[in-house]
Amino acid sequence: MGSEQKQGELWSAEPAGWAGQERRHAPLFGAMIDAAGVGLGHRVLDIGCGAGHSCGLIAATGASVIGVDAAAGLIDHARRTVGDAEFHVGGIEDLEFADDEFDVVFAANSVQYAADLGAALAELKRVCKPDGAVVAGLFGPPDDVAYRPVLEALGPFMPPPPPGAEPGGPFRLSSPGVLEAAFAEAGLDVGAQGAVNCPFSYESWDEFWQIAHAAGPTQMAIGQSGADAVEEANRQAVQPFVAPDGSITFDPNQFVYVVGRP
To answer: Which residues pair with 202 in a beta bridge?
Structure first.
């Protein structure tokens, strides 16, 4: 089973739960839309679109949007809940679209998980018009991400990486200059770049766990080590962020984005 197929299965397990987390990324999506100049009449590819929240925001600008994700469950959810968008199941490293097809290629929380980053960015560049824009966004430097302990809590429960695999994970491209260097190596001229805060807030542990439980890495950890152990590790990780009323807030929670031109 290929890595994209495996990831697709993991992220398909609980799509409604993950859709709740996507809404908490709205500040990132909005900043990326503005930085790339998405607007009326543009044709946009949203690669790694998940449950489609970003596609809805893109469509609201008057642009036409196609969302692609490796998780069939998330795509099914997007088709049921997001209007004014077209959705396809697919991966980031072998896109089914023609050269120079899109005005903007939008990749939020996706390029850092590509098994072959160079191939993925080359594909994003290939399908982007010569006068278009490729915009990618992801977690900022770990020290600026309050949600980091939740991600790190999964580490002991994850299966070992395949032999020879490149270091991965959510912070793979988060250090200053790393994403920009990857764009430049792919032949993309780096233009606008920035950072935005996306606080993650939950009314209770139950709401948090319903959403966190739906994430692909959590599903992988549960499959490897069992639900009880993973849940307890998450409970310990969130304790410093629990308010007296039981609500949970991760703030500041920085994300960064970069715009490249072919």
So the answer is: 248
3-state helix, strand, coil in the chain (%, to 5): 45, 25, 35
Contact between 10 and 32 (Cβ < 8 Å): no
Query: For residue 165, what pLDDT is reported?
Result: 58
CB 93 within 8 A of CB 115: yes
pLDDT tens sequence across 198-241: 999 999 999 999 999 999 999 999 999 999 999 999 999 999 99
User: Please, which residues have CB within 8 angstroms of residue 141's CB and are 6 or more apart in sequence?
Assistant: 171, 174, 175, 176, 254, 256
Compute the chain's Rg from CA coordinates: 18
Amino acid at 243: A
| pLDDT tens digits, 53-93 | 999 999 999 999 999 999 999 999 999 999 899 999 999 99
CB-based contact 210:159 (threshold 8 Å): no
Token representation of residue 19? 């859709």
**Tens digit of each residue's pLDDT (9 = 90 or more) over 129-142:** 999 999 999 999 99
CA 6/CA 4 separation, integer angstroms? 5
Q: Are 207 and 23 spatial neighbours (Cβ–Cβ below 8 Å)?
A: no
User: Quick one: CA torsion of 45, 258, 50, 163, rounded to 10 degrees?
Assistant: 110
Beta-ladder partners of 200: 250
Is the separation of the CB atoms in 248 and 23 below 8 Å?
Answer: no
Strands (E), the chain: 43-47, 64-69, 86-89, 102-108, 128-139, 189-197, 200-202, 248-250, 254-261
